Amino acid sequence: MPPYILMVILFLSLSSAETGILSFVAVQSTLKIGLQNDGLAAIIEFMKDEGRQDDFALSRQQMVKNDLKGRGICDARIVRAMGQIPRELFVPKSYQSQTYSDGPLPIDCGQTISQPYIVALMTQELRVGPDMDVLEIGTGCGYQTAVLSKLARRVYTIERFAELSLSAQAVLEELGIDNVEFRTGDGSCGWPENRTFERIMVTAAMPAVGEPLMNQLAEGGIIIAPVGESSIQRLVAYEKKKDERIAERFICDVRFVRVIGRHGFSES
After folding, report:
1. For residue 35, what is the DSSP state?
2. In this predicted structure, what is the pLDDT of residue 116?
3. How far apart are CA 101 and CA 99, in angstroms?
4. Which of 9, 51, 91, 147 has its CA 20 to 30 A from that of 247?
5. Alpha carbons 66 and 50: distance in angstroms, whole number
6. pTM of the model
7. Distance between CA 130 and CA 261 in Å, rounded?
8. Which residues of the chain have pLDDT under 70?
9. Which structural domains are found in the chain, ordered by start?
10. Which one from 15, 114, 165, 167 is the annotated catalytic residue?
């Protein structure tokens, strides 16, 4: 039997139920196939998609091995989450071939998706427990949000650009993630409602962590934020002690886009 017939038979159960375009007719013990051109194109595209998904899955596991475990990320929950979440869904198609390279990539509205290692490092330093509520300043494409959602009880995320927030909501909904609350607004002012969070992550650079975020940090809570006014910032962990004293710990140098807002940078 010719290889193309075997190929079509293999995908019959996947294709014919949806398209209704494949039919098999036995004539004089010879198998003949009636197949419309658009049906063939659909099968070819399906096969390409399957191949791309296999490539992404392999690249994802290589990312976990080399850029996470290989660089000191030892929290098993973070490694598992980032090994499962399809990062390619959060990356513009024009950059999807670079999805799992260990570097930042451009997204819409002049923003970026952080490199995998930095996502993992910031998440590990945040030390999120399963019973904690997390505030994220800067939803962006939603990838960091998705990672946090796998670790926390609930994630509250705020984004300046409505376009990015809506896109992130769509991807997280596609992934079946339902423990995230989205808002659009000035993240430098914190969450609009008056409440506190056990953990706060800032995903863009601030001149300094402002009073609104410090006030929304619960006792014993941690903030991870890139701070500084130059193109290279300091990634810092802040911990609120019982006496309201803030302990500060330097993690590493980083490079982030800026938080624009009342307690961030000005638009100009």
Report:
1. E
2. 98
3. 6
4. 147
5. 24
6. 0.81
7. 31
8. 1-52
9. 3-49 (no CATH), 103-254 (3.40.50.150)
10. 114
